[in-house]
Amino acid sequence: MASRLLSRSRQLYASQVVLPHESAIPARYFSAKSEPELKGDAMLKNIFLDVKKKFETAMGILRKEKITIAPEDPAAVAQYAKVMKTVREKTDLWTESQTIKHAIESETKDIPDARGYLLKLQDMRIKQGLKDELGAEAMMMDALEKIEKELKKPLMRNDKKNMASLMAEFDKINQKLGVRREDLPKYEEQLELKIAKAQLEELKKEAEEAMDTQKKRYLRE
């Protein structure tokens, strides 16, 4: 089970390993005795050793900690979230919110319009298994509709003036929902718990499927 738990951390770390442009060397250069090869090999070796060290650190933590796969139990969810937080801190990985922020920036950087941006955020939220419990997305879309109705055309993200107007509308929505910037740490903690619960549900499903497969195999024998 530790390896399955660790896969979450490894995925987070993998998303952070960004090779500099100068490392994008054609494969043939790695077989030649040249200076670029030495630099490339040294860099790849350092990355490998770093990943290996983080992997071993995380495995050590997961072997020691007690994790109960019970997504329906708030205490079990909180304990799992605590363990994964420890793994991230000890291995210098991003938090879930930092990972999501990076993913948003990567996935939306080429989207020119505000509507496409909001729809992409909605799609990413759904894929993360998160619910829009406050109904904020619908309100944000209504705010966008209001701006675009006045413009009589789609709102582009490089339209600073009208994007500022949209942000002002979003601020009103936040006030209406009682969302305050100073409460961001609390929201992040809540997000961590929601994601922890979703991951435990996935682990429980995998465990049940594995047990069912093993049972069927035993009956056949």
Automatic annotation (TrEMBL):
Keyword Protein transport part of the UniProt annotation: no
Coiled coil segments of this chain: 156-217
Any one biological process term the GO annotation gives: pollen development
Keyword Cytoplasm: no
Keywords per UniProt: Coiled coil
Pfam families named among the record's database cross-references: Mt_ATP_synt
Protein name (record): ATP synthase 24 kDa subunit, mitochondrial
